[in-house]
Amino acid sequence: MPFINVKIAKGRTVEQKQQFVEAITKVAGQILNVKEEWVTVVFDEYERENWATDGTLHSIKFGKGFGKMGTE
């Protein structure tokens, strides 16, 4: 039973997350040769002030609202 943990910054819509879980569930089932109902996907969402890359917090690096419509 695959358990897939997705860590993302907050701001994605329910529709975006639904599309993602549909796609990842289908591919995981095919590649791992398991029934799709056995695939579990969990999102861990983080505020951008709690996530940094290259030594800079995302809230500073990308500014307010970045990513709310996808990968702007």
Automatic annotation (TrEMBL):
**Which SUPFAM superfamilies is this protein grouped with?**
Tautomerase/MIF
- Which superkingdom heads the taxonomic lineage of this protein's source? Bacteria
Q: Which InterPro entries match?
A: 4-OT, 4-OT-like_dom, Tautomerase/MIF_sf
Q: Which UniProt keywords apply?
A: Isomerase
Task: Tell me the ranges covered by the 4-oxalocrotonate tautomerase-like domain, including all copies.
Answer: 2-56
Its protein name is: Tautomerase
**What EC numbers are recorded for this enzyme?**
5.3.2.-
Task: Tell me the enzyme class.
Answer: isomerase
Q: Does the keyword Repeat apply?
A: no
| Family recorded in the similarity comment | Belongs to the 4-oxalocrotonate tautomerase family.
Gene3D superfamilies given for it?
Answer: Macrophage Migration Inhibitory Factor
What residue ranges are annotated as transmembrane? none
Q: Does the keyword Plastid apply?
A: no
NCBIfam families named among the record's database cross-references:
taut (TIGR00013)
